Amino acid sequence: MKISTLLVQTGVGWDQKTGAVSVPIYQSATFRHPALGASTGYDYSRTKNPTRQVLEEAIARLEGGDQGFAFATGMAALSTVLMLFQPGDHLVVSEDLYGGTYRVLQEVFRGYGLTCTYVDTTDVKCVEESLTAATKALLVETPTNPLLKVADLAALVSLARQRGLLTIVDNTFMTPYLQRPLELGADIVVHSATKYLAGHNDLVAGLVVVKRKELGERVGFLQNSVGAVLGPQDSWLLIRGLKTLGVRMDRHQDNAAAIARWLDSHPRVTRVYYPGLPTHPGCQLVARQASGFGGMVSFDVTTPELARQVLERVRLISFAESLGGVETLITYPARQTHCDMPLEVRERLGISDFLLRLSVGIEDVEDLIADLDQALHAL
Ligand SMILES: Cc1ncc(COP(=O)(O)O)c(C=O)c1O
Question: What is the pLDDT, as a whole number, of residue 345?
Fold first, then answer.
């Protein structure tokens, strides 16, 4: 079955008793035991909840994995995965990544003895050179946040396998509709499901999908032990969001491509970062390892003052910190998503005061371009 069909059909037919097309919300903390030592399969909702289970099975199927897990937020999902590691372990991590991931690694997990080296994961040689005897995993975002650099997933997986390392991919920007890292050999996929998967800027959630039974058992043990699970209501909302992911992503991409082309010829824009532009260094690679370029577009304007002006003058587009929803949002990475990154790191990477990031929504693209045009206009 094609992925658009799988998405729409999520949960349909699950409730055999009533035939409900929409999965019921099992708003129950606990479940009656039929007898001593017997279970309906559900005992306590931290461990397993039927509504969450539908979502977890759906995301596992969509990503081509063996087991899926739903968490209260993307950070809860990622943090639970990071608990797979021990003090003394080392990770090699994409240097240009979500600021909150950098923060949790540096400010939380470092305190428990997990160290990281941040490298340009678009350069496999550089990744290889940063491996140590203690390295246990690669943690990769592709395309990266906010500069949309593209890493070669198959090449990274091949390196990781040679060295006995896990490959963990944050697939938030692409979603399984466009990119399935597990099918390219990765071991774990993490999502901020708050973004495209939920799609409506109305809930926060995280998802993890793993390959292999043993890894699934360990993540399941951690999910139940730590308990940062997604509640049944939000699981239901996320299932509802998933159903329209295909049509939403198609429109996000069409709009993003049109806006990227328009920005590229704008006199007050000095650089556009969108993997779908033929001039983007990762364009061919995305075409090979994914089925689309996504809906995120970053761009540099001529001055930091102009960046501020755009944020203040957009009317239709909201100046807000998130991405992946139907509504177009604009963010200022240096001051928002990436403010916890030290200035020298940000400067080296190019996350400057000139940089703006658009999460292109599904509105009429002409209206979006008109809004950007008036916001970029000289005062
Ligand atoms: C790429 C990426 N990963 C993870 C996260 C964290 O997810 P959440 O905000 O749902 O905790 C974000 C949030 O912006 C993100 O952009």
Answer: 85
- Tell me, yes or no, if 170 is annotated catalytic: yes
The parts of the chain modelled with pLDDT lower than 70 are 379
- Judged by DSSP in three states, 373 sits in helix
Residues 6+ apart with CB under 8 A from 162: none
Contact (Cβ atoms closer than 8 angstroms) between residue 360 and residue 261? no
Instruction: Clarify whether 180 is annotated catalytic.
Output: no
For the chain, the structural domain boundaries read 3-243, 247-376
195 catalytically annotated: yes
pTM of the model: 0.97
What is the per-residue pLDDT for 248? 98
Would you say the CB of residue 170 lies under 6 angstroms from ligand 1?
yes
Is the domain spanning 3-243 CATH 3.40.640.10? The answer is yes
φ, ψ dihedrals at 336, nearest 5°:
-120, -95
CA of 258 from ligand 1 middle (Å) equals: 25
Q: Indicate if ligand 1 lies below 6 Å from the C-beta of 179.
A: no
Q: Name the CATH superfamily housing domain 247-376.
A: Aspartate Aminotransferase, domain 1 (3.90.1150.10)
Catalytic residue among 136, 180, 195, 346: 195
